[in-house]
Protein 1
Amino acid sequence: MNENLHERARQLLAQSVVEGLSPADETWLREHLAACSSCVQEAAATQNVLRALRAVPVSLPRDLAARTQLRVRLRAQQTSPAANGSFWLWAVTAASWLLGVFSAPLVWRGFAWLGANFGVPKLALQFGFVLWWTVPPLLAAAIILHQKALTAEWSNKN
Amino acid sequence: MSTPAFTLTVAPQPLLFAGIMTDDTNALATGLRQRDPDLLDRLIEQYQQRLYRYLLFLTGNPSLAEDLFQETWIRVLERGSQYNGKSKFESWLFAIARNLVIDASRRKKMSSLEDLGDPDSNMPYDPPDERASSVLQMLVSRENDESVQLSLLKIPPYYREVLLLRFSEDLGLEEISAVMATPISTVKSRLYRGLAALKTAMTDGAA
């Protein structure tokens, strides 16, 4: 038999397992294999390789899944918003802001009383009133940003 | 001469976990975005054999494979929101693992897995050292005396990887291309050459 035919058969055998064959090529290959013992051996060798590759068994390290699950859960806890405190920080900030809104009339009266009784300049009182509103959220934002930076640094290290 | 018992097709193997088909990638993506710990537990259980085997044969180092296995799942937790559900989960998982192997090889200069990226370079393949191979052999089941598994260790890692992804993990050509971030034509070329290299290694081993 022509050597080119064997070479084509070998190429088609490889192609059949890598990317599949057209119906015409598959028919040609089957007919060739029916008449060629050396290519049948080649086909058997290919199938032997594939069979072994599909069943490459490996012994897993002891408790690998359990240890990984534990590590993943720990990391999830460490990096969750509730665990790193930002959830409660946001909650306290929101409560503080609401308190500020509802206590504003009282605070304004308090500042007015200070101005009337101690002669504090109006500009100083207005500045104090602005600080009363802005310091808590600015402080909270600074803490959150600092925490995020620490978390990112910790993640990069690990 | 009689017609040989010869099949040309690969039967797909469906995988199940806790009632959710792995094909349900949208449900998976949602769970990963929510960092669902129970989902992650199930995924770790389901993919432990495949992922560890992939890492073990890629690195040739059981201890490193174990570290990278755990690191891969940490990445899955932290980057779960990046999985969009449009591709198979295992493709995404293996891509993460592969990147970690490459990072580790850059750090530790192991038997250069950087060569995974360029099999056509003129750099000769440096097989794993004897000690690493023997440790690996202990972990590989000896049920197949023909030791195809051991022959796998004799071929370059860029062929070993693509053969494992195609025939052990049943990934399609496009999925392998996504895992390796290489064109499909490169994947095909490595598969052809890898099969030939493995057959030669088996023949040499049997001789």
Note: The radius of gyration of chain A is 38 Å.
Protein 2
Amino acid sequence: MSRIVGIDLGTTNSLVAYMEGGFPRVIPDAEGHVLLPSVVGFTADGILVGDAAKRQLVRNPTRTIYSVKRLMGKGYEDVKKELRYFPFHVVPSDEVVKIRVADREVTPPEVSALILRALKERAEAHLGEPVTKAVITVPAYFNDSQRQATKDAGRIAGLEVLRIVNEPTAASLAYGLHRLKEGTVAVYDLGGGTFDISILRVKDGIFEVLATNGNTHLGGDDFDRAVVDWLLADIKARHGADLRADLEALQELRLGAEAAKCRLSFEERTVLTIPLPQHGFTYRREISRAELETLIEPLVQQTLGPCRLALADAGLSANAVDEVVLVGGSTRVPLVKRRVQELFGKTPHSQLNPDEVVAVGAAVQADILAGGITNMLLLDVTPLSLGIETLGGVMSVLTPRNMTIPTSAKELFTTSVDGQTVVDMHVLQGERELVKDNRSLARFELSGIDPMPAGMPRIEVTFLIDANGILQVNARELRTGKAASIEVKPSYGLTDTEVERMIEESFVHAEEDVASRLLIEARNEADTVIRATERALGQGSGLIGQEETAQINGALAALKAARDGSDRDAIRAATERLNQATLHLAEVLMDSALKEALTAKRVTEALGKPER
Amino acid sequence: MTEAKRGEGVTRSARDLCWNCQSEVGGEYFCPQCVKVQPASVWSDYFDVFGLPRKLGLDLEELQRRFYDWSRKFHPDLFQRATPEEQAISLENSALVNTAYRTLRDPIARVEYLIGLEEGAVKGIPPKAPLDLLEEMLLVQEALEGAKASALDAQTQKRLTDERARLAERRRAEEERLLDVSREWDALVEGSSAASRDRDDLRRKLLDRMKGILAVRAYLTTVINDLSDALGEDSQTHVSHRRH
């Protein structure tokens, strides 16, 4: 069985990890960084992912997508209120979110797929073998649409997603490897864009989730936004400048606010300096930890309600929890730590790196699936009640929230009109009484029912939530035992056909990407040769004849012309010709350098050899 | 949908031969010949899943231990590398074990499920206002209507908050009564002293009392939720573990 990797697909950063000989390892990139910024840039030269995309964000704000996780499994209506915080353009529609970049529209699963593909390639380079299977983590409070969107992203990236696992539970597995005593554990997970609280009981290697709650739209991003809004007001007051419509300045402010927030976890005060040449001033502002805490206190308070609800659902009081674990980068904020400590009345664990612990947990779950770890088993729950629409727009619950998964419920349907051959069902998730207050997941159409008098057909529909927390629906007519055919129309998701199309497109784009990468490499090589030739001509022009100089200059001009075109073969051919034309010059230079070296008595060696 | 109806999936049916190799399995969950997992269709009800008598007083530690044992046998994680057939069986068996565990672990759901077993599938228990509270409930409804029409003043807010606390207290009292009746039920099931006709009478009486309490409890929960909504609070906060 090929190796299964564990992936933490985060709002801000993503990571990939695997298990090796019973130990989890987080895989670094070529420069040794384990965090891949979850940023995708669409540029004229191709698609950039990670640090490269993040570096050009301020210059290319409308075509650089970040925090796409907040848009996963969402409709335009869900996110339109926060769109003012995003520089990229989300297209108004009544279905799944679509982002316009240059001449094409992309969906959040496609953008996430680019991040996943970068992680897949990183893992392949590190392991030296193809990686095709993965466990991917999601916030525990993700609904069915958001989970499905994550699974779709994996498929588009060429990964078979063997399991969607909840982030706080994954973290508990990571801790469970060595550090957890048996008892009740609360995992408080505040990431870049999402918040989860999970209450577990750990006993005899079983990690039983008792209850979970959260907010899939609350995280460090919101801290940054609070700071940015405060800075905007301050800039308006002190400089009279309104920067709300300046996309580049907003990105500078956002990155500045994020960096200042991080520094304030270790320092009492810090200074924010943001050059704004386009407005003719540089903005400087000192911000203290106390000021930051005033700004984010309401947001931190918003996490405590879900904690109390989860405790109530688990049937526990806060002080009955034996251990508290902190997960997610935002739990580095001292105010967050303080509030969690106050709520549970004990010092939380944070020994494991809060950025890496979820990816490590995903790798542990991957090893459980691969049969490597046999003494740990995770029993997770579904975060939201599942139901169907009944008469009067009321939701009838089939499976209550916090049920251990997998779980299933059966419901009988029949027809209301003579000869009816099709029955519709509307499936929802949420805790409210009325359909309109809950999340619409999908409409299912049962068809192929034999024409009978109204009320005669008895169609048994099984709603099964699998171990990924994803709904599967099956139906059969009880009289005939025949399986009924079901067509699924996801409310805020992609149909199978759309995912298939995206998988195909991603191959085409992958080829385009390879082509553009090869072009960039050819240009880089040309640039190196051009620079070397110019330097050589400067040093050795007296050592060669005029004719030869003219020949070299001719080849140099030809390469410069080719380099600005986009014909990779032409660039490589011109590079080769220039290399040939300068062979003699290089020899001459080498000879003269040797002579010099003999007289200079190896001074260079004494100075130490430069790297190039 | 009631717990009892969910339990319909559990029926005793002959399962003599392994679906894979057709050899005798004799009620085992893994075929003695080919070791393939077998559909868990021999359990007659949720109590039977855990080998427990049909009683309302349960040793929760023991229940959990047996639940963990089944999970270690049936969970889909353990069938990742198995055939699609085995994966489907593991999924169904796990779903059944999970539902059975959650139903029996919750004292209220346990009673609802038992009533379903004893009286056949019933479509929920309709909420019913407690007779002694009828007048008070009318006043609450009036106040709720008023709250819908205009913003709450401090006085009304306090009144509704107090009312909610009183109803929550009453609900707890009802749940206590349910536990008392549950103990009587268990005594009846265990005992063998009374004549069988008297036993049947008592059995029916106890079931009716349980249904009565559950109906009142459902009603109280609805009003408590309405009060929370009117007070502008998430009704989740004040609901106990389950919605129904």
Note: Residues 496-540 of chain A form the longest helix (45 residues).
Protein 3
Amino acid sequence: MIQLIQNLGKSTRVSFTKLGRASYFLIQIIFGITSVLVRPRLLLNQLYSVGVLSFLIITISGLFVGMVLGLQGYYTLSDFGAEETLGVMVAASLVRELGPVVSALLFAGRAGSALTAEIGLMKATEQLSGMEMMAVDPVKRIITPRFLAGLISMPLLAGLFSAVGIIGGEMIGSGLLGVDEGAFWSQMQAGIDFYDDIINGVIKSVVFGFIASWIALFEGYDAIPTSEGVSRATTRTVVNSAFSILGLDFILTALMFGDN
Amino acid sequence: MQHTTTQDTLVGLFVASGIAGLFFLALHVSNLSSFSDQDGYVITARFENSGGLKVKSPVSAAGVKIGKVTSISFDTKTYESVVQMNIDAKYNTLPDDTTASIFTAGLLGEQYVNLEPGGSEEYLKPNGKIEITQSAIILEKAIGQFLFKSAEEKK
């Protein structure tokens, strides 16, 4: 029994110190932003590896998610003779929820795990301490550009995901199943509000980009510098990012769409 | 360097397509292009019963959407429903004896405010009041009255 309480106390202490290190790490990242702005080349390289390389998986998944929504929505809605509202259904579910959430999960799996592995390996091969020896701050040089790239890429990827998904839903809905195209778009435009739906979706994706890149970079930076440690850190990145994204999504949805 | 220029191009394309996606959402998917609530003026109408009317329900005249409902509140003195509407600025020639009524789009559709222009020479001013209103038809009430009436006739 005492052992149990001791274990609880120990795990609380460990998780709190980890949270503390992560917060300190975040402050270091934020203070490094000015030095990245002086060297935009660093940011550009990371935008390539974080954003451009995630482009394909995001657009293809978006297309298929939109097509499935179109198909499933049509079968359910046609029971009530309300096929025309397919546009609103596809667009609202993509813009509000699926766009930010699914693209953030894919982003955590595609870019986040790569970031953790890269930084963990840099630590394991002592490249980070090598930089410190040369009086180069590894946080400013390595971490902050990657963080900013994640923060910038995420809303763009989420927007792309939703846009491609809506086009996919339209292809299936009005191309294959014969929903009237005019009704599809006009119902969508009547049902989706720019500020309430689209801006809130963008805010969500910025928050998810922040969380996913923070977790990925911290897990890499905090990894035990062995091959096993790096592999565990990569796993933790994906698991923790997925948990935080889904949990935060619930909170953000309750805050944003709760009052109407 | 060949390598960095191709990378630049790809990053440029990525950012451009992301922004294009967001623009597509803003202009093609949402109602941003068709109606904005920045420019417009507010008018109020008092209804005996505003039924299932909601904030953001459309306000239309002759079947054309000209604005939307911005707030619905209950007046504690007169026991009426006070409905505020935002009318698009370009429709500023509504006569001041316009009638407001609450209709339902289709049998089970959403409710909306219909404005029926009168014959007055004076126009409704911003923050103006609509005097003549017609309440929402509550389906249950209508059915109840009909049943009551048919029961009366049988006696």
Note: Chain A has one domain: 26-253.
Protein 4
Amino acid sequence: MSDTPEPAPKLLTNRPIDGEISMIKAHLMEMSDWSLQMVQQGMAAMKAADPAAAARVVGMDDRLDAFDVDIEHEAIRILIARQPAARDARTLGAVLKVNTYLDRIGRLGLDVAKYVRDTPVKPPLPQWSLLEMMCEQGCSMVRASMSAFTTGDVHLATQVYDADDAVDELNRQVLKECIHGLQGDPPEPPELVIYVLISRHLERIADNACKIAEKTIYMETGHRRREFLTANNKVAL
Amino acid sequence: MPGTVSIRRRVTDWTTYVLCLACVVFAIGILVIIVSSSVQHALPAFQGSGVGLFTRAEPLPCSYAPGGIPCNDFGGIEPVLEGTFYLMVLASAIAIPIGVLAGVFLSEYGRNPLGRTLSFLVDVLAGVPSIVVGLFIFSVVLWWQPTIVYSVISGGLALAVIMLPVVVRTTEESLKLVPQSTREAALALGIPRYRSILQIILPNGAGALVTGALLAVARAGGESAPLLLLELQPRIGFTGWTHSIVPIPLLVYLWGFTEPNANWQADAWAAAVTLIGIMLALSLCARFLLKRRLPGSGM
Amino acid sequence: MATIHTFPDSDVKLTVDHVSAYYGKTKAIKDVSFQVPTNAATAIIGPSGCGKSTLIRCLNRMHEVTPDARAEGKVLLDGVNIYTRDPSEVRYRIGMVFQKPNPFPTMSIYKNVCAGLRLNGVRNRGVLDEAVIRALKQAALWDEVKEQIHRPGAHLSGGQQQRLCIARALAVQPEVLLMDEPCSALDPIATAKIEQLIRDLKGQYTIVIVTHNMQQAARVADYTAFMYLGELVEFGPTAAMFETPKETLTEQYLTGRFG
């Protein structure tokens, strides 16, 4: 034990990498907004069975791709220049993963838009309301997880996880209702099948939101979600 | 006006240069005068005895020589060469080992206030006038063994005391030039300290060390004051360690100043020239070693 | 409170046990304890003045060579406290390579490498030859100097000189090799060669390396000790420590927050 308390080191609060990380997180936020727009516009195009709207969504793909590539370049540049360790290193690793997740989210919206061309369903069938709920929840999960990621809010990240169950439940419900609908009397049109596919896509969007939350926990604590929860005496599901 | 300033500066530059040059010329000029006048005065002796100057004993003037015995008006200075040689050998044998070990101590074990004090005292010893050293040895030997007061031994002791601080100082300084990293490297290999000193550090500083020894010998070779005291019953040549002896500087005094015979005076000059020659040889030797053979000499 | 990783006894080569070191009245190392695992590379990192060089010099009793320096505590080599043994014997078994390459200037490459053996009494020419070749090969220097081993080592490049010093240290076959910022004075290519050398040697020797370059520690060391102001703050497996340090001070140092 030391005889006198050791003096606290003078800490730098404005390292160059701090600014760079803030900027790259801001870019990810922009990318997430764009991805969510693609999802919501894809869903809207599907609901209205509007091929023009769907084509617009397909046109959004280029910018999504550009986000992906630019953010990746930025992250690699920081890695080379700053050779970060500890939290900074984890953050950049997380940035690269989140980049991929957001790209997937946007692409899922794109897939929904593509169905409009091949399998339009006009007017939307009753089961559509479930899909709308799923989309709303999924999008809010993405927003929450991105907010948690940007601010490093571990608590919010765990809450995102908890919301996943509801979306899974809705997914199961959609499947049940669609089967029921197809066997009904009179049976719904066979295009209903497309709703099952869309439901899966929306469930995957929620999944990716959970992955973003998981990465947030890792970035902040260095632990995976399970370790973090057990360390905080919570139960991992 | 830039023009005038630059002219003034150039004049000053040039004046300074000429002044310094003149001083150098003055200093060298003195050396040239000493050497040339010595050679000039010694010429008769060289001409008269030739090589025999260095092999024969004192001259035997033909006016004193009994009939039939070979006589020579100039003779030789061989006995004083012997004198210088034996005194140098004895003084070196005493001063160099002691001086080197003392220098080793000061450099390796004396990097502390005690060591610095001892080093300072060695410097003080270097400043003691040589006649006082002679007087000191005279009184010590008188007390210890009066019969050898006038002897090679006492002369050698006096010269050793004069040589000692030079050897200590140069050893200490040359060993201090060995970088600490070398010592650490040796210790880190598990080499015992005394071994590292003897086999790594000393060889490293060997060049400067040998140079220092040679310069010490040269210095002692030219000392005359203590020997005036200690060789007052001069013999011709080496007759024994306990007997007196005459080295070159003493001869220069005895025959150069007090001897009326012109030939013997010339002999004294010849001896002086020889001494200068020996000094020159030792210095050249030191420079040669410095440049070529031994490492650690800082060149 | 520090986070110190421990090992099973069979894996430990050196045990640092409550070591403190002083320069005169200044306490440079405050009660440091940790274990150095066998046949692995352990790095000591920390900001300037944290005591890392002092610590490594305590591991082979070179610290006491500095005037007015002393150490307290125990350093156990295979269970035996080196402070109770003859220092020369200790340094024979625990070798050291310094920051600035320091081959003996008056000696040839050959004589440099076998200096440790020769000056400890080994005279047999055959034994010395074999040791020199083996050591130069281990130090990845043999191919570059085999034509000129009897020439002085002074004209070698900085990186080669440092590898010569490493060969010299290896020739006596120590059990532990201490390296005090061995690459500080070298260019990046020479540094890379020495880092590769460390990776190659650590299967055979226990290596402790002080470095001010965190990335170097990340590249070569299996375990890392982080020191601050004379105290050991954290010690553990390098990869885990650099990814998720347990102590706040370590995190602050690794992320370059020390101003």
Note: Chain B touches chain C through 25 residues (CB under 8 Å).
